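Give me C-alpha coordinates for this 222-residue protein.
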Amino acid sequence: MTFTYQTRYSDKRKTLGLVVERDKSVVVLAPIGTKDSTIDQFVNKRRSWLHEKLNYSPKFKEDKTDTPFTSGKALLYLGRNYKLDVVNDSPEDFHFSNKFTISKSNLNRGPVFLEAWYKDKAKEKITPKVEQYAKQLGVEYKGILISDLKYRWGSCTLKGNLNFNWRLIKAPHFVINYVVVHELAHLLELNHSERFWNIVRVQLPNYLEAKVWLKENGEFII
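Here you go.
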Protein backbone atom coordinates (compact mmCIF):
# COMPACT_ATOMS: atom_id res chain seq x y z
CA MET A 1 0.00 0.00 0.00
CA THR A 2 1.33 3.44 -0.90
CA PHE A 3 0.55 6.58 1.07
CA THR A 4 0.29 10.11 -0.21
CA TYR A 5 1.67 12.62 2.26
CA GLN A 6 2.78 16.19 2.57
CA THR A 7 5.87 17.40 4.42
CA ARG A 8 6.05 20.32 6.83
CA TYR A 9 9.56 21.52 7.55
CA SER A 10 10.57 23.33 10.74
CA ASP A 11 13.88 24.64 12.07
CA LYS A 12 12.66 23.72 15.56
CA ARG A 13 12.48 19.99 14.84
CA LYS A 14 15.38 17.61 15.41
CA THR A 15 13.60 14.37 14.51
CA LEU A 16 10.99 13.18 12.03
CA GLY A 17 7.35 12.93 13.09
CA LEU A 18 4.20 11.57 11.52
CA VAL A 19 0.64 12.86 11.93
CA VAL A 20 -2.70 11.68 10.53
CA GLU A 21 -5.00 14.69 10.39
CA ARG A 22 -8.74 14.46 11.06
CA ASP A 23 -9.44 14.54 7.32
CA LYS A 24 -7.15 11.48 7.11
CA SER A 25 -4.41 13.33 5.28
CA VAL A 26 -0.88 12.22 6.23
CA VAL A 27 1.68 14.83 7.28
CA VAL A 28 5.39 14.30 7.90
CA LEU A 29 6.98 16.79 10.29
CA ALA A 30 10.65 17.15 9.38
CA PRO A 31 13.72 19.22 10.25
CA ILE A 32 14.73 21.65 7.51
CA GLY A 33 17.16 20.02 5.10
CA THR A 34 15.92 16.45 5.48
CA LYS A 35 16.38 14.48 2.25
CA ASP A 36 13.30 13.20 0.40
CA SER A 37 14.75 9.69 0.40
CA THR A 38 15.07 9.79 4.21
CA ILE A 39 11.44 10.90 4.55
CA ASP A 40 10.23 8.17 2.16
CA GLN A 41 12.12 5.56 4.15
CA PHE A 42 10.66 6.94 7.41
CA VAL A 43 7.08 6.71 6.09
CA ASN A 44 7.67 3.24 4.63
CA LYS A 45 8.78 1.90 8.01
CA ARG A 46 5.50 3.08 9.54
CA ARG A 47 3.15 1.58 6.99
CA SER A 48 1.43 -0.68 9.55
CA TRP A 49 0.84 2.23 11.94
CA LEU A 50 -0.53 4.37 9.12
CA HIS A 51 -2.84 1.61 7.94
CA GLU A 52 -4.24 1.26 11.46
CA LYS A 53 -4.75 5.01 11.88
CA LEU A 54 -6.36 5.52 8.47
CA ASN A 55 -8.81 2.68 9.01
CA TYR A 56 -9.63 3.43 12.64
CA SER A 57 -13.12 4.66 13.49
CA PRO A 58 -12.91 8.17 14.95
CA LYS A 59 -13.64 8.86 18.62
CA PHE A 60 -16.58 11.03 17.61
CA LYS A 61 -19.33 10.03 15.22
CA GLU A 62 -20.32 12.54 12.55
CA ASP A 63 -24.02 11.67 12.49
CA LYS A 64 -25.10 12.08 16.06
CA THR A 65 -28.58 12.60 17.39
CA ASP A 66 -29.63 13.90 20.76
CA THR A 67 -32.50 12.76 22.93
CA PRO A 68 -35.19 15.38 23.64
CA PHE A 69 -34.82 17.78 26.54
CA THR A 70 -37.26 16.37 29.07
CA SER A 71 -37.43 16.39 32.86
CA GLY A 72 -35.22 13.70 34.32
CA LYS A 73 -32.81 13.64 31.38
CA ALA A 74 -29.23 12.98 32.59
CA LEU A 75 -26.58 15.47 31.52
CA LEU A 76 -22.90 14.72 32.05
CA TYR A 77 -20.58 17.20 33.71
CA LEU A 78 -17.11 16.48 35.12
CA GLY A 79 -17.72 12.75 35.11
CA ARG A 80 -21.09 12.84 36.88
CA ASN A 81 -24.67 12.76 35.64
CA TYR A 82 -26.94 15.61 36.71
CA LYS A 83 -30.69 15.75 36.32
CA LEU A 84 -32.41 18.16 33.95
CA ASP A 85 -35.46 19.87 35.41
CA VAL A 86 -37.96 21.44 33.02
CA VAL A 87 -39.98 24.17 34.76
CA ASN A 88 -42.90 26.34 33.72
CA ASP A 89 -41.02 29.54 34.36
CA SER A 90 -37.45 30.48 35.28
CA PRO A 91 -35.63 33.81 35.80
CA GLU A 92 -32.78 32.40 33.69
CA ASP A 93 -33.04 30.70 30.29
CA PHE A 94 -30.76 27.88 31.36
CA HIS A 95 -28.74 27.41 34.53
CA PHE A 96 -26.99 24.88 36.75
CA SER A 97 -27.03 24.45 40.51
CA ASN A 98 -26.58 20.77 41.40
CA LYS A 99 -29.03 20.18 38.57
CA PHE A 100 -29.75 21.72 35.18
CA THR A 101 -32.88 23.85 34.88
CA ILE A 102 -34.58 25.10 31.73
CA SER A 103 -37.97 26.69 31.16
CA LYS A 104 -40.53 25.03 28.89
CA SER A 105 -40.50 28.06 26.61
CA ASN A 106 -36.81 27.45 25.87
CA LEU A 107 -36.87 23.69 25.31
CA ASN A 108 -36.30 23.98 21.58
CA ARG A 109 -33.11 25.93 22.28
CA GLY A 110 -31.93 23.53 24.96
CA PRO A 111 -29.04 21.97 22.98
CA VAL A 112 -27.75 25.43 22.03
CA PHE A 113 -27.85 26.65 25.64
CA LEU A 114 -26.19 23.46 26.88
CA GLU A 115 -23.32 23.56 24.38
CA ALA A 116 -22.65 27.23 25.17
CA TRP A 117 -22.64 26.42 28.89
CA TYR A 118 -20.27 23.51 28.37
CA LYS A 119 -17.87 25.70 26.38
CA ASP A 120 -17.87 28.39 29.08
CA LYS A 121 -17.20 25.80 31.77
CA ALA A 122 -14.48 24.12 29.69
CA LYS A 123 -12.64 27.44 29.41
CA GLU A 124 -13.16 28.12 33.11
CA LYS A 125 -11.86 24.72 34.25
CA ILE A 126 -9.17 23.99 31.66
CA THR A 127 -7.38 27.35 31.67
CA PRO A 128 -6.13 27.18 35.30
CA LYS A 129 -5.07 23.56 34.77
CA VAL A 130 -2.95 24.61 31.79
CA GLU A 131 -1.40 27.42 33.82
CA GLN A 132 -0.63 25.08 36.73
CA TYR A 133 0.95 22.27 34.72
CA ALA A 134 2.81 24.64 32.38
CA LYS A 135 4.49 26.14 35.44
CA GLN A 136 5.33 22.69 36.81
CA LEU A 137 6.79 21.62 33.46
CA GLY A 138 8.63 24.88 32.95
CA VAL A 139 7.12 25.50 29.52
CA GLU A 140 5.45 28.49 27.87
CA TYR A 141 2.48 28.36 25.50
CA LYS A 142 1.06 31.00 23.17
CA GLY A 143 -2.67 30.62 23.74
CA ILE A 144 -5.58 28.34 24.60
CA LEU A 145 -8.52 27.62 22.32
CA ILE A 146 -11.65 25.69 23.33
CA SER A 147 -13.25 24.38 20.14
CA ASP A 148 -15.01 21.53 18.37
CA LEU A 149 -12.08 19.30 17.44
CA LYS A 150 -14.34 16.32 16.60
CA TYR A 151 -11.55 13.75 16.18
CA ARG A 152 -9.22 14.85 18.95
CA TRP A 153 -9.33 15.65 22.64
CA GLY A 154 -6.56 18.19 22.27
CA SER A 155 -3.70 19.36 20.08
CA CYS A 156 -0.54 21.43 20.32
CA THR A 157 0.69 23.42 17.32
CA LEU A 158 4.33 24.02 16.42
CA LYS A 159 3.80 27.66 17.44
CA GLY A 160 2.78 26.64 20.95
CA ASN A 161 -0.98 27.12 20.69
CA LEU A 162 -3.06 24.65 22.66
CA ASN A 163 -6.47 23.44 21.45
CA PHE A 164 -8.93 21.50 23.58
CA ASN A 165 -12.22 19.84 22.72
CA TRP A 166 -15.04 21.46 24.69
CA ARG A 167 -16.56 18.00 25.28
CA LEU A 168 -13.74 17.29 27.73
CA ILE A 169 -15.75 19.18 30.34
CA LYS A 170 -17.97 16.10 30.56
CA ALA A 171 -15.02 13.97 31.72
CA PRO A 172 -13.69 13.69 35.29
CA HIS A 173 -10.95 16.05 36.46
CA PHE A 174 -8.22 13.40 36.30
CA VAL A 175 -9.02 12.82 32.61
CA ILE A 176 -8.93 16.53 31.80
CA ASN A 177 -5.62 16.78 33.66
CA TYR A 178 -4.20 14.02 31.48
CA VAL A 179 -5.18 15.72 28.21
CA VAL A 180 -3.76 19.04 29.44
CA VAL A 181 -0.44 17.47 30.47
CA HIS A 182 -0.33 15.42 27.24
CA GLU A 183 -0.52 18.54 25.08
CA LEU A 184 1.89 20.55 27.25
CA ALA A 185 4.39 17.69 27.12
CA HIS A 186 4.51 18.16 23.35
CA LEU A 187 6.18 21.52 23.98
CA LEU A 188 9.12 19.50 25.33
CA GLU A 189 8.90 16.44 23.09
CA LEU A 190 7.02 16.50 19.79
CA ASN A 191 6.85 12.73 19.33
CA HIS A 192 5.21 10.09 21.51
CA SER A 193 8.63 8.82 22.49
CA GLU A 194 9.70 7.14 25.71
CA ARG A 195 10.87 10.55 26.92
CA PHE A 196 7.43 12.01 26.17
CA TRP A 197 5.61 9.39 28.25
CA ASN A 198 8.13 9.79 31.07
CA ILE A 199 7.31 13.50 31.15
CA VAL A 200 3.60 12.71 31.39
CA ARG A 201 4.19 9.99 34.00
CA VAL A 202 6.12 12.32 36.30
CA GLN A 203 3.22 14.78 36.35
CA LEU A 204 0.46 12.17 36.41
CA PRO A 205 1.43 8.72 37.72
CA ASN A 206 -2.15 7.52 36.99
CA TYR A 207 -2.20 8.72 33.37
CA LEU A 208 -2.88 5.19 32.10
CA GLU A 209 -6.15 5.19 34.04
CA ALA A 210 -7.16 8.35 32.19
CA LYS A 211 -6.26 6.82 28.83
CA VAL A 212 -8.44 3.80 29.60
CA TRP A 213 -11.32 6.06 30.68
CA LEU A 214 -11.19 7.94 27.39
CA LYS A 215 -11.04 4.72 25.39
CA GLU A 216 -14.05 3.26 27.20
CA ASN A 217 -16.15 6.42 27.49
CA GLY A 218 -15.14 8.57 24.52
CA GLU A 219 -18.24 7.63 22.52
CA PHE A 220 -20.52 8.52 25.42
CA ILE A 221 -19.33 12.04 26.19
CA ILE A 222 -20.59 13.31 22.85
